[in-house]
Amino acid sequence: MMRFHVHVGVADLDQSIAFYSGLFGAQPSVTKADYAKWMLDDPKVNFAISQKAGAAKGVEHLGVQVDSESELAAVYGRLKAAGGPVLEEGATTCCYAKSEKSWIADPDGVVWEAFHTTGESTNYGDSPDIAALASTNTADNACCAPKVAAPATSCC
Q1: Would you say 10 and 56 are in contact if contact means Cβ atoms under 8 Å apart?
Q2: Where do the structural domains in the chain lie, given as residue ranges?
Q3: Are 43 and 62 a contacting pair, CB within 8 Å?
Q4: 4-50 topology per CATH
Q5: Which region holds residue 95: left if phi is over 0, alpha if psi is between -120 and 50, else beta?
Q6: What is the pLDDT along the chain (156 residues), one digit of tens a residue?
Q7: If you count DSSP H runs as helices and E runs as strands, how many of each does the chain have, helices first?
Q8: Domain 61-133 of CATH type 3.40.50.300
Q9: Cβ(121)–Cβ(104) under 8 Å?
Q10: Are 59 and 106 in contact (CB under 8 A)?
Q11: Is the distance from CB of 103 to CB of 128 less than 8 angstroms?
Q12: Residue 105 CB-half CA count within 13 A
């Protein structure tokens, strides 16, 4: 079995545990004073967060891709349960694919997308400006992620 693994540095562990528990619809399987981990089967992921003094916070962006509209509806419900503002982009073209997607940012500005790919595209497309969702920027040269509080530019 393969699992996607993600580790994210956070500023406030308790606030982030609450956010991710809402997003995933599950409590962490491991919780320590500076660490929490979810071992999820749907989606298959080992997702960990930690709060370390002086460590970098966040990642560029993360995503959950689903295979059907009904799965996407369930993920959209979890985005709303996570407690942050959701940018419902809807039908879009991005990364040479046609998708239905929405975006949310966690308490530290880590950008998440939830999407269902419906076809291919001959052009790259573009990403929304989701400045209203987060107070920090994604990486200056981030590829494929929407820029937070900055104009979107593509690098791929």
Answers
A1: no
A2: 4-50, 61-133
A3: no
A4: 2,3-Dihydroxybiphenyl 1,2-Dioxygenase; domain 1 (3.10.180)
A5: left
A6: 457 888 999 999 999 999 999 999 999 999 998 899 998 998 889 899 999 887 778 876 788 888 899 989 998 898 889 887 888 888 888 767 788 988 888 888 888 888 888 988 777 667 666 545 554 333 333 344 444 433 333 333
A7: 2, 8
A8: no
A9: no
A10: no
A11: yes
A12: 25
Residue 150 Cα distances to 83, 84, 147, angstroms: 23, 20, 5
Q: What is the DSSP letter of 125?
A: B
Would you state the pLDDT for residue 29?
A: 92
Do 4-50 and 61-133 have matching folds?
A: yes
Q: What is the pTM of this model?
A: 0.62
Q: In a 3-state reduction of DSSP, which class is residue 13?
A: helix
Q: Which amino acid is at 24?
A: F
Q: What token pair was written down for 74?
A: 């369930």
Give the three-state DSSP class for 133.
Answer: helix
* Separation between Cα atoms, residue 131 and residue 124, nearest integer Å: 21
Please name which of 130, 124, 137, 146 lies closest in space to residue 62, comparing C-alpha atoms.
Answer: 146
Tokens representing 146?
A: 């929407």
